[in-house]
Amino acid sequence: MKRIFTQLNSRITAIALGGAVVLAGSAVAFSQKPKAESFIPPAVDERPIAREVGSHTSFAPVVKKVAPGVVKVFTTTKVHNTSYNGGMPGDMDDLFRRFFGNQFQGRTPKRNMMPMPRQEGIGSGVIATKEGYILTNNHVVDGADEVKVALQDGREFTAKVVGRDPKTDIAVIKIDAKDKELAVVPMADSDKVEVGDVVLAVGNPFGIGQTVTTGIVSATGRAGTVGLDYEDFIQTDAAINPGNSGGALVDAEGRLIGINTAILSRSGGNQGIGFAIPANLARDVMESLIKDGKVTRGYLGVMIQDVTPSLAKEFKLKQGQGALVGDVTPKSPAEKAGIESGDLILEFNGKKVTDSRHLKLEVARVQPGESVPVKILRDGSTKTLDVSVNEMPGTEHLAKNDNNKGDDNGTLNGVTVADLDSAARQQFDLPGNVKGVVITDIDPNSAAAEAGLKPGDVIQEINRKPVRTAEEAVKMTEKATDKTTLLRVWREGGSRYVAVDESNAG
User: Fold this and answer.
1) Residue of 135, 139, 245 whose CA lies nearest to 201
2) What is the pLDDT of residues 447-459, one digit of tens each?
């Protein structure tokens, strides 16, 4: 590591973060505050599915059970274009104003006599309760001026949009069908779904009518596919096409395990990779929208990251599970509970934490004000803390990885650092409360660059020891006994851990 005092001209811009795909059908959660009407949450059938090896000769009994509860959703949207004048060209509109004055401005002849153009959309929905609440996708009803629902028995209803949640792409609509009992699709515990389970997709692809396709669960916990804030998709090879959005993905018992949402496709049609929102997530969002008129999510106040093999080694972990705490927000529920930077969260609310994405989802499911146990690993010992979760305060900020330019001995070779004086803070746009040394240059071929370090990063700790000056940082890396260096680095609003392994450098 090299120490320098000159400053570079480059400038790092901070980026604040929260977490070809075709939506199978078209932010803040928008909803109408529900009236004081009774709402009975749908029951969950938690019986395990039969997984004996064998083949079904027919899924007809399952389809007969599910089909009446899957509906067609038709939307109509007016084209709100202020330049539209009932079919009259813009220059003709100017001509009328020229000869007759501004009395015609905004209301030229025939302006109000011509109908506004309309766009129509088609999707699917799943009847979730006997009261007429229907689950569908947000992108199916987003912006719609009118929503209609057609049942399998031929009845049609005008639906009310109860609420929408763009963060999960879930929407709830409601129909009033008091004249006849509605068929409800029973729900399963989607957490128990396993890769290889047989599934059926039921929906209204391309508007041709209700269609059933079959396949298996190809994967669970898929994320980073659509770009939603909360993604935990079930992947399936059951044929899903445009118009299937909001339709049902059911197991071999006919129980809802997911809401079909998107496909990964180069052609725009089904290519065997479809995604469904897990029923548990959809149910939580639905209940929140109906009861509260909005989606309320839990907030812990930690910046977390996944445990890589190199980090697992440094923290002496047997496996790379859990979520590593890089930073704790002051006065947050996590800080009040005693969670510290460097803690590894192993369990949250009684459930094992597999990675940072999984923890984010579980925290969001907790109701604000609820106290939950959190099991952590700290300095080789485990302990359980009680955390009183708060409500999510708007936008989440997550840490982000990147890469980018120096030669010497010891560890962190190719890294050049400088003291955090006023010039350095101004150059790299660093807040005054951040302590450590700033990276001003880095060799792009170094192990440090490969680990994701870049100019503008602030090294706060080296091998779990605080560092305050560039000279101190150089001394701490000159006589290292191990080729792997564990750093705590501040970047873009928060801290994270980075393990730099130089054993294979070059």
Assistant:
1) 245
2) 898 899 999 999 9
Contact call for residues 342 and 329 (beta carbons, < 8 A) = no
Report the first-to-last Cα separation within the chain, whole angstroms: 16
> Is the whole model's pTM more than 0.85, yes or no?
no
**Helix, strand, or coil here: 477?**
helix
Tokens representing residue 248 in the block: 């049902």
From CA 416, how far away is CA 406, in angstroms rounded?
6
Residue with tokens 């909360």: 230
Active site amino acids: 139, 169, 245
CB environment 131-153: b (16+ within 10 A), e (fewer)? bbbbbbbbbbbbebeebbbbbee
- The total number of residues shown for the chain amounts to 506
CA pair distance 306, 345, nearest whole angstrom = 10
Count CB-CB contacts under 10 A for residue 66.
23
Q: Which long-range contacts (CB under 8 A, 24 or more apart) does 232-235 make?
A: 232/277, 232/278, 232/281, 232/357, 232/361, 233/258, 233/261, 233/262, 233/275, 233/276, 233/277, 233/278, 234/190, 234/193, 234/258, 234/275, 234/276, 234/277, 234/278, 235/273, 235/274, 235/275
Q: Which residues contact 352 (CB under 8 A, 6 or more apart)?
A: 321, 346
Q: Which amino acid is at 364?
A: A
Residue from 125, 285, 280, 65 nearest 193 by CA: 280
User: How does pLDDT run across 280-309, given as a tens digit for each residue?
Assistant: 999 999 999 998 888 888 999 999 998 888
Q: What pLDDT, in 10s, does the model give residues 170-224?
A: 999 999 987 678 999 999 999 999 999 999 999 999 888 899 999 999 999 988 7
Whether 418 and 471 have beta carbons less than 8 Å apart is answered as no
Cα dist. 494→375, 378, 434, 460, 489 in Å? 22, 20, 10, 11, 8
Taking the C-alpha atoms of residue 95 and residue 107, their distance in angstroms, rounded to an integer, is: 13
Residue 23, both tokens: 């939506």
Task: Quote the tokens at residue 463.
Answer: 């091998």
